[in-house]
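Quick one:
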Amino acid sequence: SLAKEHSAADWSQRPLPTEWLNYAALDVELLIELREQIYELLASANKWEWAREEFQAILDAPPPAPRVDPWRRTSGMHKVKKRNQLAVIKVLWTDRQELARQLDISQGRLLSDAAIVELSGVALVKEIKSKKDLERALRPIGLRARWLENSERWISAITQALALPEALWPATRSDSDTLPPIKIWRERFPEKYAPLTHAKARLDERAKELSIPLENMITPEYVRRICWNSPKSGVAQALATLGARSWQIAIAAPILEEALLE
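Output:
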């Protein structure tokens, strides 16, 4: 057994305590033995070549593309409707990220997402020009003393955002190729929903037969995109373009091709 009491600790602090270093070392102590056990399991189940393909895909994978508008992932954004409020969130988030990078510290320790969203709303109705103004604005959500340590920086960011002309305010939504939420497919896109339900049911059955988690056998997002687009070039080619491995394509493509006819 492995004690997990340090897993939630703040690992950005320096120096790391000796007992934390021991904990980290114990995390990898049995990896070689574990590898041998896993190999035996995979080989006996005729899944070793599948695993090798997965490992190679990890080695060959390019660096992830930069996320578009990462500031839009701020927790609580679903409550924000006004574009000038988005401008405040964007500038505060960007400024917080830059400071966190300089200090090598977690962004949330400088200013939480909840604090950023709260400030963006207050700034539209009340001026925030001093540390006391900042304190009053954040007190309703449970003020943290560390949020005020860089109060001048946050006030400057808010002032900068509010001074932006409307033409520079962020759009309410960013351009993306995100699919519509599944919950509206049945009513609004029944011709997409029907093959999706058939595909999911049959893929789930196949995953159980192979004793593989469904999301490992084929990425659910790939299934949704195949059912949404009904690729003319063929399902196998479309899955390969999306990034599915050959072993996944061999299993999933025939099932998806059949489901698209339902």
